[in-house]
Amino acid sequence: MNDIDAWAWWLVGAAALGIPLVVTAMPEFGMLAVGAVAAAVVAALGLGVVVQVLVFLAVSVALIAVVRPIAARHSRQRPQLATGVDALKGKQAVVLERVDGSGGRIKLAGEVWSARSLDTGRAYEAGQEVDVVEIEGATAIVI
């Protein structure tokens, strides 16, 4: 196998590693593919097979050791931007109809919501501002 063939085979290997990356969505295959591309570069420079394999292993292992923990840490983080009902928690609302432990109506984020008081003994009269602490179904729990 001459030097030109070696780099071509490394690129074929990189492309072959891209298939399971797409099918399984396992980023490790992508890191191995990058290692194969690095080995193709080394092969194109005319270095021997042993150096090519060592570069492939070094780059692949380095990427897996460095990138994988960073990606895992980012995947466990909650999104910075709250959306849906999560975005409504902590917002202020205006009472439209008396809100107590059994129900009522509030205006929250420009929409009319059913609401009930977190403290069943507490009531809020029309016009008062309340804070939303939770959303249960289509009902806002307020204090």
From TrEMBL:
Bilayer-crossing regions: 6-23, 30-47
Tree of life domain: Bacteria
InterPro entries recorded: Membrane_assoc_protease, NA-bd_OB-fold, NfeD-like_C
Cell compartment(s), UniProt: Membrane
One cellular component (GO) term of this entry: plasma membrane
The protein's name: Membrane protein implicated in regulation of membrane protease activity
Gene3D superfamilies: Nucleic acid-binding proteins
GO MF assignments: peptidase activity
Membrane topology: Multi-pass membrane protein
Keywords, sorted A to Z: Hydrolase, Membrane, Protease, Transmembrane, Transmembrane helix
Residue ranges occupied by any NfeD-like C-terminal domain in the UniProt entry: 85-142
Biological process terms in GO annotation: proteolysis
Main location: membrane
Pfam families in UniProt: NfeD (PF01957)
